Amino acid sequence: MNNIFETLSIPGSETIILVTPRDLSNKTFAIQLALNLNEEVSSKSG
């Protein structure tokens, strides 16, 4: 089984997450998760 990672960059942020091809079917969840993480980081640093 190949664990080839693909990058998924989030528009409007510097967040880039690595996903396996299997996870690409759940891109919407991944994007939402990354956006949530980005908001947490922004609120802490701001």
Q: Structural class per helix/strand content?
A: alpha+beta
Please state the CA-atom Rg, rounded to the nearest Å: 12 Å
Strand content: 15-25%
Q: Treating each run of at least 4 consecutive H or I residues as one helix, how many helices?
A: 1
- What level of helicity do the residues show? 40-55%
**For the report, how would you describe the main beta sheet?**
2 strands, antiparallel
As laid out across the biggest beta sheet, the strand order is: 1-2
- The 3D shape can be described as elongated
Number of domains: 1
Report the average pLDDT across residues.
71
Q: Give the ordered list of helices and strands.
A: EEH
Poorly predicted parts? none
For the record, give the distance between the C-alpha atoms at the N and C termini, rounded to a whole number: 42 Å
Described by its quaternary structure, the protein is: single chain
Annotation, overall tally of beta strands: 2
Quickly describe the structure.
With 46 residues, the chain is of the alpha+beta class. Helices cover 41% and strands 17% of the residues.
Tell me what you see in this structure.
This protein is α+β, with helices and mostly antiparallel strands and 46 residues long. The protein has one domain (6-45). The protein is built from one helix and two strands; from the N terminus they run E-E-H. It is elongated and about 35 Å long. Strands 1-2 form a two-stranded antiparallel ribbon. The protein has one helix spanning 27-45; strands at 6-9, 16-19. Strand 1 (6-9) and strand 2 (16-19) form a beta hairpin.
